[in-house]
Amino acid sequence: MKVNTNMKYTIYKTTNLLNGMFYIGKHQTENPNDSYLGSGVYLKRAIAKYGKCNFKKEVLYVFDSEDEMNAKEQEIINEALLKDSLCYNLMLGGEGGPTWNGRHHSLKSRQKMSEAVQKHLAKESHETRSLRQKEVWKHLREDPERLAEINAKRSKFAKRNHIGHEMSFQTRKKISDSLCEYNAKLGRKHVIDTKPFKVPHGRAPIRFVTNGKVEYRVNADEIDWYLSNGYSLGRNLNNKKSLALSNDAKDRSSGKGKLIVHNPITREVKRISPAELQSYVDCGWKRGYRK
Q1: Same domain, residue pair 153 and 178
Q2: Which residue of 27, 50, 193, 284 could cross-link 54, Cys pair, CB 3.0 to 4.6 Å?
Q3: Are residues 149 and 183 in the same domain?
């Protein structure tokens, strides 16, 4: 294995120029003065909020070995430093490693978790577990009352945790307003800023609009917005669902020998008998669905 002799092990300090808060960390690099600012959770949030231009990094120490770097970090980032209200750091310095909610798992804890997982996996294989689950559900299907009880509990859990549970109109409107406000602060234009908020279905007649590529099923009070943004009333004949309504299907009968005709002016669609076809054509009607 080839060792990189140019690698440097540094201890750095990144300072917020606006409020004086700081972060101390370690970094392995060939260029100690690179643009790396740190990976702390609070530090990343601050950089996203204030921008990189408002942070300054200074290299405090440069070492030739990782052990020296870890020892120095452990010396600097202690309990007293973490209590400083201006410090972005969350954990004590040292080796680093897996964390949960800002805390390290000890080596003993990690060993116990590893042994527990290995012991569980050794009991049965994936195929064995799959067969066992199939047997469980097989017995449940033979007991409708028990299955209904389990499904009721699952449904109750889903509603309590909003899994597959439809939110109310007021809740969705609050989420929409908060997203608009959040994106306005960041200077971004969110899709909900340019597209009207959909009212629940059933409060207004539903119509189809298309731009030639995609189609939407929208409320009647949204139609004006779509028409002013390049959409037109009707279905999109390019998608699979509407292929049966294309020109190839015009000559086919539709339901008990009926033919489909439409009025290009009023956009009305009717099913008529073959005997009535000529009279409708004479009045300006056309064969098939309107495009």
Answers
A1: no
A2: 50
A3: no
